[in-house]
Amino acid sequence: MDSQTAIFYHEHVLTKDPGTYKTTPWHHDQSYYPVDGDKVCSIWMPVDPVPMETCVQFVRGSQGWGWFYPRKFATTLNYSLTGADTGSKTFRDVPDIDGDREKYDILTWDVQPGDCIVFHMKTLHGAPANPSLSLRRRVVSTRWVGDDAVLAERPWEVSPPITGGLTFGDKMACDTFPLIWKRD
User: Fold this and answer.
1) CB atoms within 10 A of CB 31
2) What string of DSSP letters covers 33-96?
3) Which of 11, 40, 126, 141 could anchor a disulfide with 26, C-beta 3.0 to 4.6 Å?
4) Cα–Cα distance for residue pair 112/48, rounded to 1 Å
């Protein structure tokens, strides 16, 4: 993150049981959250062995492509606008990565329990289905923000809808989003 601080923002567990044929649509994380700033990252850590065929995939360099609308995973439709101001941001539809995969440099790996994939929250990523009839794919995913992160308004309902009692423009460190590390 190239930050003097690391603030814990959010976590969740992602599971794809054997025989899950639903893919995770291409998206980037930051649009879902009420967080602005460039010193932000997601950490994807499997608790099961995950072969490359079912591992999360990334579009190299996409963190520099600007802002994309968040998508509902169940339908792949964009979130509904609530009318809030987007400020100076222009949000676009996520490109059809799967429709022209040769156009993109897509990265993925075989990973083992405890391995971590760390990526910028504006990096486009998605995940294939899990057609295995025996392998479960469970992942702990965390979100971290740094020095320049502030609470931001989004023109849709953010997920999770937690603001820690902060107002728009406030730095993120608070009781809800604790400062975990500070450079000496």
Assistant:
1) 22
2) TTEE-SSEEEEEEESS-B-GGGS-EEETTGGGS-EE--B-TTT-PBPPP-S---TT--EEPPP-
3) 126
4) 6
Residue 46 near residue 6 (C-beta atoms within 8 A): no
| Domain assignments of the chain as residue spans, ordered by start | 5-157
Per-residue model confidence as pLDDT tens digits over 131-171: 999 999 999 999 999 999 999 999 998 988 889 999 999 99
Model pTM score: 0.94
CA dist 152 and 86 (Å) reads: 9
Q: What are phi and psi of 79, to 5 degrees?
A: -60, 150
Beta bridge mates, 35:
151
The torsion angles phi and psi of 35, rounded to 5 degrees, stand at: -130, 125
- Residue in 73, 33, 10 with CA at minimum distance from that of residue 159: 33
How far apart CA 66 and CA 91 sit, in angstroms, is 8
Residue carrying structure tokens 């054997």: 18
pLDDT tens digits along 49-91: 999 999 999 999 999 999 999 999 999 999 988 776 677 788 9
Superfamily classification of domain 5-157: q2cbj1_9rhob like domain (2.60.120.620)
> DSSP assignment of 131-173, as one string?
--SS--EEEEEEEEE-TT-EE---SS--SS---TT--TT-BS-
Q: Is 101 helix (H, G, I), strand (E, B) or coil?
A: helix
